[in-house]
Design a protein that fits this description.
GO terms for molecular function: malonate-semialdehyde dehydrogenase (acetylating) activity; methylmalonate-semialdehyde dehydrogenase (acylating, NAD) activity. It catalyses: 2-methyl-3-oxopropanoate + NAD(+) + CoA + H2O = propanoyl-CoA + hydrogencarbonate + NADH + H(+); 3-oxopropanoate + NAD(+) + CoA + H2O = hydrogencarbonate + acetyl-CoA + NADH + H(+). The protein is of the alpha/beta class and 486 residues long. The chain is built from 16 helices and 23 strands. It has 2 domains: 276 residues, Aldehyde Dehydrogenase, Chain A, domain 1; 184 residues, Aldehyde Dehydrogenase, Chain A, domain 2. Bound molecules: nicotinamide-adenine-dinucleotide.
């Protein structure tokens, strides 16, 4: 097991670890123990400028490096990440709180993005038409766009940065990452391993901090594009300010995902999947199951299975074996969740499993047990807001049409799942649901690296999503050349 030595973190600029000009810092906690594990610098706009200037300079050479050579660095990086898999997972568990099993899964997701980006020679190939008219030909070529600013949330310190920088640098851009100030440690290993893989200095940089760094990136004239992942209000703000400054922006935002359970579903499978999707990572996933819309005919059975399975969940430090449910990220987030639970009761939802009763005075971290409400309606705050916590709402519905109608009332539209064996119902669900990532008889329909992470409505602002061919298009621009040989 790794030991985290308490330290004041540094920015990573041009291949050097540098103390920022700002001497402001914030404490980083292990949410399972409440211990301070690091001090993260809260850099200012000058620190951002230093990093962007270095990245802009590095871009001039990096964009000229032949694409297969860039890919080879990513192949080497992939090997290093595989070798460091356990260590990376432990860092994630220590700074984020999720179980080691989930952290290992997160590392895998990150590695898959590196693997996808290593295929960049094929992905970046253009297209030609040898005869658009007599003696005339046309072709399209892809090029990088410049310096990319990446701004990431606390809940996936490895996977979300890996949605961004592997493809960005593979396509010839340079990158400035601002990791979440609540989980900033993993990014350090990402940078160290990039260096070991042979990435030239200045291609990948880190500036730690909070909103000043974000604003610095959004306003900097040498930043060509911004990839953002985080909560809805910040995503909207980042999208508006970035596009106002005429940058390309993709802003992946908050969520409130519905799972629909029909009467013919395999209820044992459905409830197992929903429990994993609702309480895995303490509900701190943008693809978490937040609401179960269940047909009345099977609602009592579903509710009883959900409670029974939630009662079997082991709560504790994610580093301990068999622990499924770790802490939420901070005490402030725990208090916010407890207020939502009170609000749910006040507004008339039926609390059928109260995670507040799972308190263990021996534990110092920010724990809340699995909490389940029944008879939740779309007027209630716990249905409307993204709680991002281990709280699941059950809404009883007449049939598939009413389940879809309920789901489509949400302002968010990241994922939605259906549990059924009826092909016609699946088709109707697919055609009528307003959400970008759908699951059939699975709990977390998160797409793999080669498909786009396609939130709709207030779950995404922009045109080109992260990952897949969208990711490639976001980080590149095209030249079309029309030629006459005489
Ligand atoms: P957050 O919005 O608090 O923070 C995200 C980033 O924005 C961080 O780097 C943070 O420093 C910065 N930030 C925060 N407040 C800011 C402000 N006022 N001005 C400028 N920058 C600011 O999000 P979080 O709590 O770290 O992450 C959880 C959220 O992320 C959830 O809402 C979750 O749904 C969302 N998320 C979405 C996806 C997706 O794919 N749609 C994936 C993961 C997480």
């Amino acid at each position: 097991m790794i030991q985290i030595k308490q330290q004041t973190l540094k920015n990573y600029v041009g291949g050097k670890w540098m103390s920022p000009k700002s001497n402001q810092t914030e404490q980083v906690y292990n949410p399972a123990t409440g211990e301070v594990i690091a001090e993260v610098p809260i850099s200012d706009k000058e620190d951002v400028d230093d990093a962007v200037q270095v990245a802009a300079q590095a871009f001039q050479e990096w964009k000229e490096v032949p694409v297969p050579k860039r890919a080879r660095i990513l192949f080497k990086y992939q090997q290093l990440l595989v070798e460091q898999w356990d260590e990376l997972a432990e860092i994630i568990t220590i700074e984020n709180g999720k179980s080691l099993k989930e952290a290992k899964g997160e590392v895998q997701r990150g590695i898959e993005n590196v693997e996808f980006a290593a295929g960049v020679p094929s992905l970046m190939m253009g297209e030609q038409l040898p005869a658009i008219s007599e003696g005339l030909e046309s072709g399209v070529y892809r090029y990088p766009i410049g310096v990319i600013g990446g701004i990431t949330p606390f809940n996936f310190p490895m996977m979300v940065p890996c949605w961004m920088f592997p493809m960005a640098i593979a396509t010839g851009n340079t990158f400035v990452l601002k990791p979440s100030e609540r989980t900033p440690l993993l990014a350090i290993r990402l940078a160290e391993l990039l260096e070991e893989a042979g990435l030239p200095n200045g291609v990948f940089n880190i500036v730690h901090g909070a909103h000043d760094v974000v604003n610095g990136l959004l306003d900097h004239e040498k930043v060509a594009a911004i990839s953002f992942v985080g909560s809805q209000p910040v995503a909207e703000y980042v999208y508006k300010r970035g596009t106002d400054n005429l940058k390309r922006v993709q802003a992946l935002s908050g969520a409130k995902n519905h799972s629909i359970v029909l009467h013919d579903a395999n209820l044992d499978n459905a409830t197992t999947q929903i429990i994993n999707a609702a309480f895995g990572s303490a509900g701190e996933r943008c693809m978490a199951a937040s609401v179960v819309a269940v047909e009345e005919a099977v609602a009592d059975e579903v509710v009883s299975l959900l409670v029974q399975k939630a009662n079997e969940i082991k709560i504790g430090n994610g580093l301990d074996e068999d622990v499924f449910l770790g802490p939420v990220i901070r005490d402030h987030h725990k208090q916010r969740t407890l207020k939502y639970i009170e609000k749910g009761e006040e507004e008339g939802a039926k609390l059928i499993r109260d995670g507040r009763k799972d308190q263990d005075t021996e534990r110092q971290g920010y724990f809340i047990g699995p909490t389940i409400f029944d008879e939740v309606t779309s007027e209630m705050t716990i249905w409307k807001d993204e709680l991002f916590a281990p709280v699941l709402s059950v809404a009883r519905v007449k049939d598939l049409d009413s389940a879809v109608e309920l789901t489509n009332q949400s302002r968010f539209a990241n994922g939605a799942c259906i549990f059924t064996n009826d092909g016609g119902a699946v088709r109707k669900f697919r055609e009528t649901i307003d959400a970008g990532m759908l699951g059939v008889n699975i709990g977390v329909p998160a797409p793999m690296a080669f498909f786009p992470f396609s939130g709709w409505k207030d779950s995404f602002y922009g045109d080109l999503h992260a990952n897949g061919k969208d990711g490639l298009a976001f980080y590149t621009r095209q030249k079309v050349i029309t030629t006459r040989w005489v």
